Each structure stands twice: as structure tokens, then as C-alpha cells.
């Protein structure tokens, strides 16, 4: 019980009503104490100008766009890094406000006879940072992309209210050599000027930002083992930043904006891709990299053993298998290029370049006595062999004294730095500890033709999950969200003929692991993503307010993710469950949207997209950072939202709500007829019993099919063997009754954590809240996820509870 009800001594920013709903709830991993720095304290934050705001929509529009003609702060939310090989884009999109026009939301309140007079519905503050890349040689695709999303005009905000609003003066921050080289092209094609930011400044700003703001951004990679490293932001400097792009820059970083480019090498990513292309005829970088995974470098490289007749040269510590000379074997053989396997060439080349970079990096670390070396740039490509080779070189030459670390947003350092250089973003201050790495759903766009339904149909929907942040956000800023249009993940998967393939069949087929249809990765130890084009860009969610729940005993030790999927067996188990459950979930999701053809199409696309994520996790469990079960379930939710399924369990919950509401009066009568002590215990047990519907477990669904909800409720309350128990009941009872040996005063205020099913709320929380209110205790409802009564907005719950307490139900 301890975490169910807590007496709360502090005032949590609440108004004078007796019942409140608070967002948050302490369930997020990212709630570090530093997150308490709420957004509104930053004076450099973009200001909202709502003057002359208007809603532009047809009456039937579900998600009307709010136009802010005088709002200028949002416009600069795209930044570019135009390198020798790749163009990197970072852009920001706001979360859309939650729609309040849904008819079904009225039903429960109507049924409960509550007035709808002061319906509160707020937009959601927050947004996403999207990361997208294009090949520089295909710059036109990048320009098309920017244009189609109107990113150069603030994501379409301006374009909607006036086509004549001048783009002419629009400025986009850009870094990399291409900011100079392609400035005219951008002016010509998009009418924008590129505001050039220094490449090294940007790399350092981006790296510092990521290392300070994103949990588990850095990781080590040794002998195939990836380990995330949590960097202490107060103990970050100095370090060596090695950016492996086309060429390689090595920068000694001493602080924010304090750095020196101490070295570089022209043997870099461009060398690997360029030489590799000439030598193997590969058509793409990924193809070349993939090829290396099947290679054997001993056919190309001259090994110590080749020189020493199979022996080690142990006196100087060289084993027979050590490469003495990269590509050296080819000089002594009478073979032509075509007699060598492209796989072997690719591997030799990759090893040669990676090792060389690792070695030069080490020498520079030694030169400046730096212990930590971070490697970024797109050459790394999250590729296991590349990282292992670099790590080996660093470790070998430093005798273990220095450590190579890699960055998850490896190639986006410069673009992020450019993005941060917009002064008004004040990101350095604002975003630190307020970004949450989620799953790369939003903009998996990496080049290729832009296909898809008209952009207007693809308004990004607000994630209801964000509701947990809603209330604070509104209180703090009252910022009105706007609808941004995205060519998104959804579009990719909805389109026939796009390049993305769904690697996972829905049912197990011969030749698979039997893991619910996961294919065995082709190459062992592979970390190159077969579905790379779809999944290698990411989204960072800007979460407006993350507060550590004030009553947590030890916030640092609190780990809400109780199931850690680092254990391969655990991961396999849960991936199998999710995979097997997928067809059923799709059916439900489609039904929840009325079973229309459009819903079916989206359902199918969702299944393919989600399967792709599962397959990737199977292949590379750490692909999305540290993973717990809650993250996995959240990923599924996010993916559903991405395909515009508001709530796959809507119809089930509706039935559950109706069933629960129908029996609620009986339950009240039953409770009221009990003696006080029995009632209190029953109420607590009822909360737990009602919770059984959580996550829709199969056993609960079976139960549900077998009896009425009150029967299930009673049964689970009385008979089910449960792994929980009611602890501290005596304390609870004494506090409720205000009696007992300890003569504790009654609760002044209670926090009730509202979970996510109808029975949970109606049969569990409502009766308890009613009892508390009747006893004069204030009730604060804390929503730790969407209270999915689903025909009631979260904001209406307090009214409903208050009415229940008055006995009006
Ligand atoms: N899809 C891809 N196409 C081309 N190169 C890729 C791709 N993915 C990874 N790479 C590798 O990444 C390198 C480019 O990395 P990055 O984008 O960090 O540098 P850049 O900014 O283009 O180069 P520079 O900073 O030297 O101008 C390429 O040379 C290649 O080795
Ligand atoms: C020229 C840059 C900085 C362009 O990004 C990069 O490609 C690089 O660092 N090349 C290596 C140049 C050298 O120091 O030898």
C-alpha cells in the first residue's frame, strides 16, 4: 500500500479544488533530480505570440490547425550539416495539442449526469528532434524533403496562413563545407539563406550536448560487447573527440566552446567508401559494409605469420595472426583484382582504416594525456567490426590506459551543434535533461523518392502517453501546439513500392528461429542493420516537465522498469509474446477504428513496422539503448500512434467501462453495507483487483469472457492467488479512522495513482476516492499513464470523483 496512498505534505502546484489530477508520477527512468528545472525558467526560450491566432479548418476537420500568424519563434527549427559525403538534418516538431472534439468522450459524463460545462482540454507542449540524412551527391532529394515538409518555413506554419509571407529572408543554420558550396543552390531552390556556422564549433557543441543531456548516449564496444556508459556531466572534460566523416578531425575538448583541433587524417570514411567502391563495384556504402561481414582478410593482408613462416614474433609481442601489412599479400601473388573476393577486400579495407584511425586517436590522446576518446561521424555506422577494431587499437596501444567510446547519434554532432546555435533556442540551458530518447518512429527518411498520400492526411498525432506531462506543461507555459505535417514512418510503410521491406513474417516459417517468426540474422555478430534505410535515424522527444516524484524514498535507486531485457532469455521471451500477440492486436486496433479499409491498411502497415522493430531488436538488442519491458511496451504504443491508432483497446475498454459503470451502484451499496474495517480492506483489495486488467493480459481476457465484470472483480478480490499483499493496512486503517494506538491524525491529502483501465478506475480508484473524500481527505489523482476511461478526458476525472463522493452516482 505504501506506494498507493501517501500523505502529501508539500503543495504540488494545485488549485483550490478538492480533487486534482497531476501529471507525472515518478514512473519515468529519466526523472533525474536535474529535471526539476522546469522550462519556464529559461528566459531565452522562444516566446509564443498568440495575437491574431485563428483556427483554420473545415467543420469536419478532426485536427484543426491553429495558425499563429505572429509567431516567429518556431520558424528556425531546422539545421543542416552538409558534409563531403552526407547531409545531416536536425529539425524540431511540436507535439500537436490533443483534440477535444471526440464525441465518444461525452458519453461517460453524460451517463454519469455530469455537466460538461467547464471541459478543460489543453494542447500538449513538447516536441521531437528529428534526425535525417541524405547522401550529398543526392542533394536534390534533401531539398525536396525540406520543401515537402516546409521545414525552411517553420514546418508549414507560415505557409498555411499566407503564401506570400516572405521566405526571402528565411535563414537556416548550416555547417560543413556544403554550407558554403551549396549556399546558392539553397537560395535558388528554397529561397533561403544558409547562415554558416563553423564545423568544429558545431561538432563540439553537438557532442557536449549529447553527452550531457542524453542518458546512455555513449557506449563502449569491445569484442562484440556493447556497454552503455553514463557520463557524469560534471566530469566530462577533457576528452578527445574523433569525428570520422569523409575525412577525420581530432579535437581536444576542454569545455563548452573550449577546444582545439589537434589532428586529423585524410584516411577516413571517404577513403573506405571511395576505394571500396572502385575495388568492389559496390553501389552503396551499406552494401560495401555488409559485404565485409562475410569477408576473410587473411587472403589480402600480409600477416606476421606469412613473413615469419607461421611463427609469432613474440619478442615484440606480435602473434602470427597479427596483420603485418594491410593488403600486403596481394603484392606477392600473381592475381588480378577480379581474382580476389570483394568480401575480403572490403574487410581488409575496413580493418585498415579503422585500425589506423584508432591508432592515431590514441597517439593524440597520449599527446595530451586524455583518457577518454569519443568517436563520432557516420563512418562508424554503429558497425560492430569497425568499433571493435578502433577499440582494439586504442586499448592495445594504450595498454588499457585509454578507452574508446562511441556515440549513438554518431553522425549528427555537427547538425545538432548547428541547431543549437540558434540563439533563441537556448538549448544548452533548456534541453539538458529534458530529452528522452525514444524509438526512431517519426522520420525514418533517408533519401529516395518522396511518395505517399497527400501530406495533409498525415498530421502527426499527439501521443496520448504525453498526457502525463500535460498538466504541468499547461500550467507552466500555456503554449498552444500546432499541427505539423510529416512524411513519416507511417507513410513509408503505407506506400506500396517503397524500398523498405518488413523483415519479419507474421507467423513462424521454416528456417526461422521459431521465435514468433524472427529470421536468423544472415551474418553472425552482425550489427549492420539490414533494414538500415528505415531505421537508422532517430527522434528525441522533448519532454516538457519531468519531475522526480517527491515522495520517492530514493529517487536515484528507483527503477520503474522491473523487467530488464538485457538478459537474452528474457528478451526472447517478451519479443516472442509480442510477436505472437501481434495479429490479435492488429485486429483490435483495426476494430477500434471502425474496421474501415483505411484502418485495415494502417493496421497492416503497423504490423510490418512493428515487426521491423522487433526484428531489429532481436538482431541488435541494444539498438534503442537500454531496454526494459516497459520501454518495449511503450515502443508498441508509440508505433500504434504513429499509424494513427489512438487506442487499440478502445472497444474493449468501452465494454469494460460500460460493464464497470453498470455495476458501480451495486458495488457502492455492497461497500456501504460493510462494517468500517471490512470496507477499508475491501477498498484496498478492490484497487488491486481492478488492476488485473492492466496490459490486457491473456488470463484476464479469458476471465473477462467467462463472467461479468463484477464477478471477476469479486473473484479476483477474494479468491485469486495474487503475488501481492496489502501491506501497511494497519497504518492505513488508523490513518483513515484517525484512531489507533499511535493516534495518528487522518490523512490530510491522498495521492491516488490512476492506472490505465476502466475497471481499474471505476471499480478500484473511484470507490476509494469516494471514501477518502467523505472522510474529508483531499484527493490528488496522479496519472502515470493515460487514464484510459477513454470516453472521459483525464481532466474530467476529478469532477467525476467529486460527484461520486457526493453520492450522486
Ligand atoms: N549511406 C551512406 N552513404 C555514404 N556514406 C556513408 C553512408 N553511411 C555511412 N557512410 C560513411 O560515412 C562517411 C561520412 O560521414 P559523415 O557524414 O560523418 O561525414 P561528412 O560530413 O560527410 O564528411 P566531412 O565532415 O569530412 O565533410 C562516408 O564517407 C562513409 O564512409
Ligand atoms: C576537411 C574536413 C574538416 C571537412 O569536414 C574533414 O574532412 C577532415 O577533417 N579531413 C581531414 C583533413 C586533415 O586533417 O588531414
TrEMBL record:
<protein>
    <recommendedName>
        <fullName>Pantothenate kinase 2</fullName>
        <ecNumber>2.7.1.33</ecNumber>
    </recommendedName>
</protein>
<keyword id="KW-0808">Transferase</keyword>
<comment type="function">
    <text>Catalyzes the phosphorylation of pantothenate the first step in CoA biosynthesis. May play a role in the physiological regulation of the intracellular CoA concentration. Functionally redudant with PANK1. The phosphatase activity shows preference for normal or oxidatively damaged intermediates of 4'-phosphopantetheine, which provides strong indirect evidence that the phosphatase activity pre-empts damage in the CoA pathway. Hydrolyzing excess 4'-phosphopantetheine could constitute a directed overflow mechanism to prevent its oxidation to the S-sulfonate, sulfonate, or other forms.</text>
</comment>
<dbReference type="InterPro" id="IPR035073">
    <property type="entry name" value="At2g17340_3_helix_bundle"/>
</dbReference>
<dbReference type="Pfam" id="PF01937">
    <property type="entry name" value="ARMT1-like_dom"/>
</dbReference>
<feature type="domain" description="Damage-control phosphatase ARMT1-like metal-binding">
    <location>
        <begin position="583"/>
        <end position="804"/>
    </location>
</feature>
<feature type="compositionally biased region" description="Basic and acidic residues">
    <location>
        <begin position="14"/>
        <end position="31"/>
    </location>
</feature>
<feature type="region of interest" description="Disordered">
    <location>
        <begin position="13"/>
        <end position="50"/>
    </location>
</feature>
<dbReference type="GO" id="GO:0015937">
    <property type="term" value="P:coenzyme A biosynthetic process"/>
</dbReference>
<dbReference type="GO" id="GO:0005524">
    <property type="term" value="F:ATP binding"/>
</dbReference>
<keyword id="KW-0464">Manganese</keyword>
<keyword id="KW-0173">Coenzyme A biosynthesis</keyword>
<keyword id="KW-0479">Metal-binding</keyword>
<dbReference type="GO" id="GO:0005634">
    <property type="term" value="C:nucleus"/>
</dbReference>
<keyword id="KW-0378">Hydrolase</keyword>
<feature type="compositionally biased region" description="Polar residues">
    <location>
        <begin position="34"/>
        <end position="46"/>
    </location>
</feature>
<dbReference type="GO" id="GO:0016787">
    <property type="term" value="F:hydrolase activity"/>
</dbReference>
<comment type="similarity">
    <text>In the N-terminal section; belongs to the type II pantothenate kinase family.</text>
</comment>
<dbReference type="InterPro" id="IPR002791">
    <property type="entry name" value="ARMT1-like_metal-bd"/>
</dbReference>
<dbReference type="GO" id="GO:0004594">
    <property type="term" value="F:pantothenate kinase activity"/>
</dbReference>
<keyword id="KW-0533">Nickel</keyword>
<dbReference type="GO" id="GO:0046872">
    <property type="term" value="F:metal ion binding"/>
</dbReference>
<keyword id="KW-0067">ATP-binding</keyword>
<keyword id="KW-0418">Kinase</keyword>
<comment type="pathway">
    <text>Cofactor biosynthesis; coenzyme A biosynthesis; CoA from (R)-pantothenate: step 1/5.</text>
</comment>
<dbReference type="InterPro" id="IPR004567">
    <property type="entry name" value="Type_II_PanK"/>
</dbReference>
<dbReference type="Pfam" id="PF03630">
    <property type="entry name" value="Fumble"/>
</dbReference>
<dbReference type="InterPro" id="IPR043129">
    <property type="entry name" value="ATPase_NBD"/>
</dbReference>
<keyword id="KW-0547">Nucleotide-binding</keyword>
<dbReference type="GO" id="GO:0005829">
    <property type="term" value="C:cytosol"/>
</dbReference>
<dbReference type="InterPro" id="IPR036075">
    <property type="entry name" value="ARMT-1-like_metal-bd_sf"/>
</dbReference>
<comment type="similarity">
    <text>In the C-terminal section; belongs to the damage-control phosphatase family. Phosphopantetheine phosphatase II subfamily.</text>
</comment>
Amino acid at each position: 500500500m505504501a506506494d498507493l496512498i501517501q500523505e502529501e505534505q508539500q503543495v504540488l502546484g494545485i488549485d483550490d479544488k478538492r480533487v486534482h489530477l497531476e501529471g507525472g508520477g515518478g514512473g519515468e527512468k529519466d526523472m533525474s533530480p536535474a529535471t526539476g528545472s522546469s522550462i519556464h525558467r529559461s528566459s531565452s526560450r522562444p516566446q509564443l505570440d498568440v495575437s491574431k491566432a485563428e483556427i483554420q479548418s473545415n467543420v469536419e476537420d478532426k485536427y484543426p490547425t491553429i495558425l499563429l500568424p505572429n509567431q516567429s519563434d518556431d520558424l528556425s527549427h531546422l539545421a543542416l550539416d552538409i558534409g563531403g559525403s552526407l547531409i545531416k538534418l536536425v529539425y524540431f516538431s511540436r507535439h500537436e495539442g490533443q483534440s477535444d472534439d471526440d464525441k465518444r468522450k461525452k458519453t461517460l459524463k453524460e451517463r454519469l449526469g455530469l455537466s460538461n460545462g467547464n471541459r478543460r482540454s489543453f494542447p500538449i507542449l513538447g516536441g521531437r528532434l528529428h534526425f535525417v540524412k541524405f547522401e550529398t551527391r543526392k542533394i536534390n532529394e534533401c531539398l525536396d524533403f525540406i520543401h515537402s515538409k516546409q521545414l525552411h518555413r517553420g514546418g508549414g506554419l507560415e505557409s498555411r496562413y499566407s503564401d506570400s509571407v516572405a521566405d526571402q529572408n528565411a535563414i537556416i543554420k548550416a555547417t560543413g563545407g556544403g554550407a558554403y558550396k551549396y549556399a546558392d543552390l539553397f537560395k535558388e531552390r528554397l529561397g533561403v539563406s544558409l547562415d554558416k556556422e563553423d564545423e568544429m564549433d558545431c561538432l563540439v557543441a553537438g557532442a557536449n550536448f549529447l553527452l550531457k543531456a542524453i542518458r546512455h548516449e555513449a557506449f563502449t564496444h569491445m569484442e562484440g560487447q556493447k556497454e552503455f556508459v553514463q557520463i557524469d556531466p560534471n566530469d566530462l572534460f577533457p576528452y578527445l573527440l574523433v569525428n570520422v566523416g569523409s575525412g577525420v578531425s581530432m579535437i581536444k575538448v576542454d569545455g563548452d566552446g573550449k577546444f582545439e583541433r589537434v589532428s586529423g587524417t585524410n584516411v577516413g570514411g571517404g577513403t573506405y567508401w571511395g576505394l571500396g567502391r572502385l575495388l568492389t563495384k559496390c553501389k552503396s556504402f551499406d552494401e560495401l559494409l555488409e559485404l565485409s561481414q562475410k569477408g576473410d582478410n587473411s587472403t589480402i593482408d600480409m600477416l606476421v605469420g606469412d613473413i615469419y613462416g607461421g611463427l609469432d614474433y613474440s619478442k615484440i609481442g606480435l602473434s602470427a595472426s597479427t596483420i603485418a601489412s594491410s593488403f600486403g599479400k596481394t603484392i606477392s601473388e600473381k592475381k588480378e583484382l577480379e581474382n580476389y573476393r570483394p568480401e575480403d577486400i572490403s574487410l581488409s579495407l575496413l580493418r585498415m582504416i579503422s585500425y589506423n584511425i584508432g591508432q592515431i586517436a590514441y597517439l593524440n590522446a597520449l599527446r595530451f594525456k586524455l583518457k577518454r576518446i569519443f568517436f563520432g561521424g557516420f563512418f562508424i555506422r554503429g558497425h560492430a567490426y569497425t568499433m571493435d577494431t578502433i577499440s582494439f587499437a586504442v586499448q592495445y596501444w594504450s595498454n588499457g590506459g585509454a578507452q574508446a567510446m562511441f556515440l549513438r547519434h554518431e553522425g549528427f554532432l555537427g547538425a545538432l551543434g548547428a541547431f543549437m546555435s540558434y540563439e533563441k533556442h537556448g538549448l544548452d540551458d533548456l534541453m539538458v535533461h529534458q530529452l528522452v530518447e525514444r524509438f526512431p518512429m517519426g522520420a525514418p527518411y533517408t533519401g529516395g523518392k518522396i511518395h505517399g498520400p497527400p501530406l495533409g492526411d498525415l498530421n502527426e498525432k499527439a501521443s496520448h502517453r504525453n498526457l502525463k506531462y500535460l498538466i504541468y506543461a499547461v500550467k507552466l507555459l500555456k503554449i498552444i501546439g500546432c499541427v505539423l505535417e510529416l512524411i513519416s514512418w507511417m507513410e513509408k510503410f503505407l506506400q506500396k513500392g517503397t524500398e523498405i521491406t518488413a523483415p519479419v513474417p507474421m507467423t513462424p516459417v521454416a528456417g526461422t528461429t521459431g521465435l514468433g517468426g524472427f529470421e536468423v540474422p544472415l551474418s553472425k555478430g552482425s550489427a549492420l542493420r539490414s533494414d538500415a534505410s528505415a531505421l537508422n535515424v532517430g527522434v528525441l522527444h522533448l519532454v516538457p516537465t519531468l519531475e522526480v516524484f517527491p515522495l520517492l524514498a530514493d529517487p536515484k535507486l528507483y527503477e520503474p522498469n522491473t523487467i530488464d531485457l538485457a538478459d537474452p532469455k528474457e528478451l526472447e521471451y517478451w519479443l516472442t509474446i509480442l510477436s505472437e500477440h501481434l495479429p490479435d492486436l492488429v485486429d483490435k486496433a483495426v476494430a477500434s477504428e471502425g474496421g474501415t479499409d483505411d484502418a485495415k491498411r494502417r493496421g497492416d502497415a503497423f504490423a510490418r513496422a512493428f515487426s521491423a522493430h522487433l526484428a531489429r531488436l532481436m538482431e541488435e538488442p541494444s539498438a534503442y539503448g537500454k531496454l526494459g519491458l516497459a520501454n518495449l511496451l511503450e515502443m508498441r504504443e508509440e508505433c500504434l500512434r504513429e499509424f494513427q491508432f489512438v487506442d487499440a483497446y478502445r472497444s474493449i475498454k468501452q465494454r469494460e467501462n460500460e460493464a464497470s459503470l453498470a455495476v458501480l451502484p451495486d458495488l457502492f451499496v455492497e461497500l456501504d453495507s460493510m462494517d468500517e474495517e471490512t470496507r477499508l480492506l475491501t477498498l484496498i483489495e478492490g484497487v488491486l483487483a481492478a488492476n488485473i486488467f492492466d496490459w490486457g493480459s491473456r488470463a484476464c481476457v479469458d476471465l473477462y469472457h467467462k463472467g461479468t465484470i463484477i464477478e471477476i472483480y469479486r473473484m479476483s478480490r477474494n479468491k485469486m492467488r495474487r503475488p501481492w499483499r496489502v501491506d501497511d493496512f494497519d497504518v492505513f486503517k488508523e490513518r483513515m479512522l484517525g484512531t489507533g494506538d499511535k493516534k495518528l491524525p487522518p490523512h490530510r491529502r491522498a495521492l491516488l495513482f490512476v492506472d490505465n483501465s476502466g475497471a481499474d478506475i471505476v471499480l478500484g480508484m473511484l470507490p476509494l476516492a469516494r471514501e477518502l473524500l467523505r472522510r474529508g481527505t483531499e484527493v490528488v489523482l496522479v496519472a502515470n499513464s493515460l487514464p484510459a476511461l477513454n470516453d472521459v478526458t483525464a481532466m474530467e476525472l476529478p469532477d467525476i470523483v467529486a460527484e461520486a463522493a457526493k453520492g450522486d452516482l
